[in-house]
Amino acid sequence: MKMMSKEVHCLSRHILSFRKPAEKVDPSPLSSVVKYTSQQSALSSNNTANLSSNHWSFNKTLSNLIRKNILRFLDPERDISILKGTLKPGDVIHYVLDRHSTTNISENLYRLLPTVSPMRNQHHRRCAIVGNSGILLNSSCGQEIDSYEFVIRCNLAPVKEYSADVGQRTNLVTMNPSVVQRAFQDLASDEWRERFVARLQSLQGSVLWIPAFMAKGGEERVEWAARLILLHTVGVRTAFPSLRLLHAVRGYWLTNNVQIKRPTTGLLMYTMATRFCEEIHLYGFWPFPLDPQGRPVRYHYYDTMKYDYASHSSPHTMPLEFRTLNTLHRKGALRLHTGTCHTGNVPIESGQTTRALK
């Protein structure tokens, strides 16, 4: 890891600083909601839930600085995937989070490794990253989300039956191995295998990002998925993140005084997207059980799963991540959308041609 520059220290002091040290932050999600709503109440008496008010403006200078500093820790174009030329079938891989455990590169997985980065030479003016929070339900944000040049989604979340709220366009989607078990019943029957293949076939041309080497326990699910992708010639571009990515991303945020345990998929995607996207908009990021009006919010928009955001046993620190993103939102580095969208209110910049980022 390279030494921190004066710019990195400046970013830590002025962009991502908080009044309390991270370890002393009140773990109660309700206290975060109270703080959040009080900050936003002055913006709009009729829509305190909508963080992305008309007062927001893009801070290109800050966005460029963040991109530059992230590139000191990792290059997402390279680290988004291990490439075929670097491994061969039978090679032993140590898991990123379980260094004493290993797996072997199977023939099927090797066949799915890309020969070049799936994000090579990709640069976009405006991108959307769609998280899976229940805050998206009844948001009517589908049309707006689909208007972005590049859309990133998390953990193969369903979109078809929720398209009015979450849209359908997908250019990159993550798939943790646990998704195969949780959402597709470990592909235990023909019906679940067909559902899985149908979901993948709906992603024609998209990047399917599979963190296969993060933690032990998912190797069989990765192999099952690989077999079905090859068997049915599913038209997705698979990617398998480099072994250094997770620690590099965590290192960047820790250097900037954000004391995360392990970055969530959403924070990983934002960090990497800074490399490919000039202006980044986040939807479905809301790690609290209540919305600003005190109404219950599902953990996922598509199921009834429960989650304890304040649990000390969780590998993630979601409320802290949200406060960090909220700070960057208020400074114009990114835009958080947590309220409702209006039909026909599509960004005027959509459809612009892409151009290289400096």
Which sequence of strands runs across the widest sheet?
Answer: 7-6-5-4-3-8-9
CATH superfamily: Glycosyl transferase family 29
Structural class: alpha/beta
Total number of distinct structural domains:
1
Kindly report the CATH topology: sialyltransferase cstii, chain A
The count of strands amounts to 9
Give the helix/strand layout.
Blueprint: H1 6-14, H2 29-40, H3 60-70, H4 76-79, E1 92-94, E2 102-104, H5 107-112, E3 124-130, H6 142-146, E4 150-153, H7 163-166, E5 172-174, H8 177-184, H9 190-201, E6 207-209, H10 219-231, E7 237-239, H11 245-255, H12 265-273, E8 277-283, H13 318-330, E9 335-337
Parallel strand pairs: 3-4, 3-8, 4-5, 5-6, 6-7, 8-9
Antiparallel strand pairs: 1-2
Keywords: Disulfide bond, Glycoprotein, Glycosyltransferase, Golgi apparatus, Membrane, Signal-anchor, Transferase, Transmembrane, Transmembrane helix
Family: Belongs to the glycosyltransferase 29 family.
Protein name: Alpha-2,8-sialyltransferase 8B
Annotation keywords:
358 residues, alpha/beta, sialyltransferase cstii, chain A, seven-stranded parallel sheet, two-stranded antiparallel ribbon, 9 strands, disordered C terminus, Sialyl_trans, transmembrane, Alpha-2,8-sialyltransferase 8B, disulfide bond, membrane
